[in-house]
Amino acid sequence: MRRRSPRRLFGVLAAATAAFTLLSSASTAGAADVAAPAASAPRSADAAVQPLSTSTPVVFVHGYTGDASNWVTAMSVFRLNGWSSSDLFAYEYNSYGNNVTNAQGLAAFVANVKARTGASKVAIVNHSMGGLVSQYYLKVLGGNTSVSHLASIAGANHGTTFAGACLIYTTCQQMYPGSSFISQITSGDETPGTTRYATWYSACDGIILPYTSTRLTGATNNNVLCQTHIGYLADTVVLGQVARFVAS
Questions:
Q1: Separation in Å, CA 149 to CA 27, 29, 202, 226
Q2: C-alpha closest to that of 95 among 168, 21, 153
Q3: Do strands 88-91 and 58-61 pair parallel, antiparallel, or not at all (unpaired)?
Q4: How far apart are CA 180 and CA 168, in angstroms?
């Protein structure tokens, strides 16, 4: 049985933040490196519906204390955009272990998805600490050769000082800015290989501190005008943008 953090760092925040997000329709998405989309898009599943389809399997990687259930809305949005349920996968890992081990597990998971689907590459969509797991896999373990697209939603790609609240765990030590783990995935080329990279980040995040930590040099970095860290998981506008990016 998976252990629960006594601090419940992100888990405690999740319920209140998600409830706020589902009641609010104020946040809109823009892009830092590309032209911003219309700011009046409604917060509904219909906003994400586009006549798109893809044969590329998608692997979703949750954040600290998360699990596969974090991706229920995202998978629904991807299905609305043309994906088959059989091509959507959620990778689960130990939030309290070691992100090197978690990245190795992701490598094995991706290999299994490729074998099951017959695809030569997958797309990865991550959230929060899932950014560290994904970046280590792509950069240090050479996983970029198996990944066509990497979409990082509020990823802790350069760390977050919020991890100071759970430094009892190795994963949180690795997630703290300036850690040796962060240095490994950010030194040199942050977006290696032919993989297409994109990020979504917001000043309203509240968990990724500084919020610009999510940005990756060489990626299309999308500045979301105001969205909370957990709120992204129910944000069909952003998730629709992610789906269209993966389909590009």
A1: 25, 20, 21, 24
A2: 168
A3: parallel
A4: 16
Q: Render pLDDT for 123-181 as a digit per residue (tens, 0 to 9).
A: 999 999 999 999 999 999 999 999 999 999 999 999 999 999 999 999 999 999 999 99
The CA distance from 80 to 67, in Å, is 22
- Token pair for residue 146? 């198996």
179, 159 Cβ separation under 8 angstroms = yes
- What DSSP character marks residue 74? H
Determine the Cα–Cα distance for residues 71 and 182; give it in Å rounded to an integer.
Answer: 25
pLDDT digits (tens, 9 = 90+) for 13-29: 443 344 333 333 333 33
- Would you give the DSSP letter of residue 136? I
Residue whose pair of structure tokens reads 């509240």 in the numeric block = 206
DSSP conformation class of 224: B
Q: In the structure encoding, which two tokens stand for residue 231, read together?
A: 């709120």
- What CA–CA distances, in Å, run from 127 to 80, 132, 160? 20, 9, 13
Q: Is the separation of the CB atoms in 87 and 151 below 8 Å?
A: no
